[in-house]
């Protein structure tokens, strides 16, 4: 059975969109995910039903030039309904965590606490969450555009097995759905385009759709919905 992925932050503000030209101009390399923050706190939630396949500190230090991506987490979500109508298995890589609340092998469900985002890793300008979605679940810890040599992401062993790095990422905005009570907006001064904010709400559950049809039918017949 397929599933939708909801936002990892309930009130998500995009600070840098997927493959943002402004990001590339500033940093000198492309951005293969979405950077985001939330005014409601730093708690990061699971986006769907998945399995934690990697977790930990990517460099020898949590911050500074040798810290690479900081504290990272990789979750594989199976049978994800994507915006183009295709159903895919996806690897989700998240970087710059302050704390990690799960461990390898854990099963998670949408809304489960994964940790809190922070400012770990190099090349950061403040606390935020980087979220990256990849169609390559055979090598879920290989990230295009990141140097080989990490403890979790792009380990030499994984790179030798794969033989190369390939950009197989997807735009998270083309996959995400707004869960109940969730909001998405652009952060003030953020590097994003309108498409980075074009996330649809979750489809109504079948029971809800059936109820709405009953209400519509009653209203059309002029009897109101009080008797339903």
Automatic annotation (TrEMBL):
Q: Where is the M23ase beta-sheet core domain?
A: 30-136
Pfam families linked:
Peptidase_M23
User: What's the domain of life for this entry?
Assistant: Bacteria
Question: Can you provide one Gene Ontology molecular function annotated for this UniProt record?
Answer: metalloendopeptidase activity
The identity of this protein, by name, is M23 family metallopeptidase
What's the source species' lineage? Bacteria, Bacillati, Bacillota, Clostridia, Eubacteriales
């Amino acid at each position: 059975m397929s599933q939708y992925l909801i936002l990892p932050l309930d009130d998500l503000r995009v600070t840098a969109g997927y493959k943002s030209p402004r990001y590339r101009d500033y940093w000198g390399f492309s951005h293969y995910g979405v950077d985001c923050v939330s005014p409601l706190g730093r708690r990061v939630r699971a986006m769907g039903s998945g399995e934690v396949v990697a977790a930990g500190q990517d460099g020898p230090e949590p911050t500074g030039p040798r810290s690479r991506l900081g504290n990272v987490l990789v979750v594989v979500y199976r049978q994800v309904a994507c915006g183009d109508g295709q159903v895919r298995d996806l690897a989700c890589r998240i970087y710059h965590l302050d704390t990690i609340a799960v461990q390898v092998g854990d099963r998670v469900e949408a809304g489960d606490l994964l940790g809190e985002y922070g400012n770990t890793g190099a090349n950061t300008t403040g606390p935020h969450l980087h979220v990256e979605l990849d169609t390559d679940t055979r090598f879920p810890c290989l990230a295009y555009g990141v140097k080989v040599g990490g403890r979790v992401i792009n380990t030499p062993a994984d790179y030798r097995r794969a033989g190369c790095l390939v950009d197989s990422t997807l735009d998270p905005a083309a996959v995400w759905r707004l869960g109940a009570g969730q909001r998405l907006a652009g952060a003030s001064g953020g590097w994003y385009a309108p498409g980075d904010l074009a996330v649809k709400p979750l489809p109504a559950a079948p029971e809800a759709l059936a109820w709405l049809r009953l209400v519509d039918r009653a209203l059309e017949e002029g009897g109101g919905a009080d008797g339903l």
